[in-house]
Design a protein that fits this description.
Layout (H helix, E strand, L loop, with lengths): L3 E4 L6 H14 L3 E5 L5 H9 L6 E2 L7 E5 L15 E7 L12 E4 L5 H9 L5 H14 L10 H14 L4 H12 L7 H6 L2 E6 L2 E10 L3 H4 L2 H15 L3 E8 L4 E8 L1 H8 L7 E5 L4 H13 L1
Parallel strand pairs: 1-2, 1-4, 2-3, 4-5, 5-6, 8-9
Antiparallel strand pairs: 7-8, 9-10, 10-11
Bound molecules: manganese (II) ion.
């Protein structure tokens, strides 16, 4: 039997990458951290900070054995996952999974997958792994401010920070989060796809990308370009609805730009689309503040 790969979702974020590295580390021999996409600027900062290598890149899952972290929907997984063997899932997203044999399936409504892994191994975590798990929690929860944040995330951050040698948690967390919110030097397509997920709601395919900004002007300056790219992507991949969520981490609100069947988005949030977007006060999380509302109108 070959290696077992621990792998997160496509367009991987810091939680997907760092959870894969940490879980593979604790699982030990034969278990290897993997990824199915490019490392983003934020994750690359974190890995360099704690002096760790990125996981190996896998683009075809067929014939391989996997542990899935930070996702459970095969539409978000490495290609040909239906021809792979899945041994285990650890995740904190909504469940859209079925499998033909009994496996370990562990999901919990906490702020990050890293929180679950940290809880499991807290007594044995050393500096580098503590550092990347801490970073993943601070990234996924937007420094413990996102609507997805739980008491358990706070607990783990409090325990991991001293092991990782991080004194000022807020400052470090903001620094990590800012790395991803820099749109300069990225093409419109890179911006949209940097944190992008596919969803299947019945027969309908819905795509939702997101970025974080500290000022809506950052995305507004690029809006024409971004809208054009969204239209192109929608036509190319036949999305019923394609949206792009700009999360303002200072204002604690999001603008949801939509192309395709906009009436679905209007129905979901009970307000009209203005200037191509919906302003969602208090919305900071795709999984909690956006996906459930959109899914409801498609089901
Ligand atoms: Mn996550």
């Amino acid at each position: 039997m070959g290696d077992i790969y621990v792998i997160g979702h496509k367009n991987p974020d810091t939680d997907s990458i760092c959870s894969a590295i940490a879980y593979a580390y604790f699982k030990g021999e034969n278990v290897v951290a993997a990824r199915c996409g490019e490392i983003n600027a934020e994750t690359s900062y974190v890995l360099e900070y704690f002096d760790l290598d990125p996981p190996i890149l896998i683009s075809d899952g067929s014939g391989k054995r996997f542990i899935l972290v930070d996702h459970n929907e095969l539409s978000q997984s490495v290609d040909n996952m239906d021809q792979a063997e899945i041994l285990e899932v650890i995740d904190h997203h909504k469940i859209n999974f079925s499998y033909s044999s009994p496996i370990i399936f562990h999901t919990e409504p906490v702020g990050s997958t890293a929180t679950m892994i940290a809880e499991r191994y807290i007594g044995k975590i050393k500096r580098k792994i503590a550092g990347i798990l801490l970073s993943a929690i601070l990234s996924d929860t937007i420094v413990l401010t996102s609507t997805t944040t739980t008491e358990r995330d706070f607990e783990m951050v409090k325990k991991l920070a001293p092991i990782a040698g991080i004194e000022d948690i807020k400052m470090f967390g903001m620094k990590v989060n800012r790395k991803k919110s820099n749109l300069k030097g990225l093409t419109a397509s890179q911006i949209i796809l940097s944190d992008f997920k596919d969803f299947e709601f019945g027969e309908d395919k819905v795509g939702i990308g997101q970025i974080r900004v500290v000022d809506f002007r950052e995305s507004e300056e690029r809006m024409d370009e971004l809208m054009q790219e969204l239209e192109k992507l929608k036509d190319k991949n036949n999305y019923s609805l394609l949206s792009f969520m700009v999360v303002n981490i200072v204002e604690r609100a999001s603008k949801l730009f939509v192309v395709g069947d906009r009436s679905k988005a209007e129905e979901a949030f009970k307000k009209p689309v203005k200037d191509n977007s919906l302003y969602l006060d208090g919305a900071m999380s795709r999984k909690k503040d956006v996906v459930p509302f959109i899914e409801r109108v498609f089901r």
